[in-house]
Amino acid sequence: MSRDAPVHVLICGERLRGDDGAAVLAASLLPPDVVALARITEVGQISPDAFVAIPPDAPLIVADAAVGIPAGRIVVLALESLADSAGDGATPASSHSLPARQVLALVSEIRGAPVRGTLIVLGGATFEFGERLSAPVAAALPDFTAAIASEIRRLTGDRAPGRSISPTSARRGPLALDCQ
Residue 147, SS3? Predict the structure, then answer.
């Protein structure tokens, strides 16, 4: 990945679906100096279209809310590890989307190169209609925002001070991205 290119950040979620709006809210809370380092795109749902325009060597972050992990827990892992988890039973939270691992496999096939980057997810509790976040997600929102900012800074080589969240790759049970 090139440190000279802006970091592409795909923000998944729907602000009118409870905790599914957490990544959208987190993106709106990023400090201006971090926003200047990134190309932030609100995509709503993870789909092949979201990835195709991003050069394979460009730094990439996907931020989303998820089911399958405790509400309020932040998980940071390599997109490659999600793509490699074909047998882990992960399923989409919506019948309208492919599982993230299948989207990543399809995009890799289209590009002729694997999708590389970082996935930052926040466990959600409710994905029903409404703008209100659940209590655990609202409490974790500052740390979720800090995790996104920290990864943008890391990928650009910007060592500006800020809160950081250590990556977590261990998890229990399936991870299903809820990108409605």
Answer: helix
Domains and CATH numbers, the chain: 7-177 (3.40.50.1450)
Residue type at position 128: E
pLDDT per residue as tens digits for the range 75-128: 998 888 776 654 444 444 443 456 677 777 787 788 777 788 899 999 998 888
3-state secondary structure of 146: helix
Structure tokens at 178: 């809820």
Tokens matching residue 128: 């029903």
How is the chain split among helix, strand and coil, in percent rounded to 5?
Answer: 35, 20, 45
**Model pTM?**
0.78
Return d(Cα 129, Cα 85) in angstroms, integer: 30
